Amino acid sequence: MKIKEGVIQDATFITADPGHQRIDEPRGPEAKTRRNKEGEWAKKGGKSHYGYKLHSKMDIDYGLIREIETTPASVHDSQIDLTKPGEVTYRDRGYFGASCKGHNATMNRATRGHPLSIREKLRNKRITRKRAPGERPYAVIKNIFKSGHVKVTTTIRTHTKNIFTCFCYNLLQTKHSQSKKHNLANANIQKMKNLANKYKKEKN
Q: How far apart (Å, rounded) are the C-alpha atoms in residues 40 and 15?
């Protein structure tokens, strides 16, 4: 399955139980807790999240997750680059200014003294439309698979769970795509039959 239209990179929080330790107490292997040892705190939109981040790259052609990375929640989205040379990569404003090994299609962000031009705003709208399908994997992972929260205590174990979760998503997406193609083929066949019947009636 070759990628032609490009890929979407994004990230989402995978929460974990912080246990009873205070936010300023050390974590890691020496942490005195049976809860989470390697998760970290992060704040977004005024809301605090504890745990990890799932960084993923999804292709636009088939809607499949092609690559993932798991980090503590405090790692900023822009620090992870999952792209490859030659790929057109669509990313939101959080990646503005970050490196990209592929063709960079990151949304522009206004900075102090440099508001967005009309051209940049229109470009952002085009990228937003391209990025829209990228929210589907996270919706499925969290709402259907109930995998938005983990009980494992380390990054590597969380990453392993994310690998299996994303694999299951790809199976579901493949089945959905095949069903969609089958329905489209049936619709085309029915359309051709209707045209043939219409032609026969006109001929008679």
A: 10
In a domain, 172, yes or no: yes
How many domains does the chain fold into? 1
Give the Å distances, CA to CA, from 16 to 38, 51, 123, 133, 163.
Answer: 10, 5, 37, 26, 17
pLDDT in tens, 93-137: 999 999 999 999 999 999 999 999 999 999 999 999 999 999 999
Q: Specify if 2 maps to a domain.
A: no
Length of the chain: 204
H helices present in the chain, as ranges: 118-131, 136-139, 155-203
- The residues, any chain, with a CB within 8 Å of residue 65's CB and separated by 6 or more, are 56, 57, 58, 137, 166, 169, 170
39 is in which domain, residue-wise?
Answer: 7-203
Q: Quickly tell me which residue has 């929460």 as its tokens.
A: 15
Instruction: Tell which residue, 118, 114, 89, has the closest CA to residue 101.
Output: 89
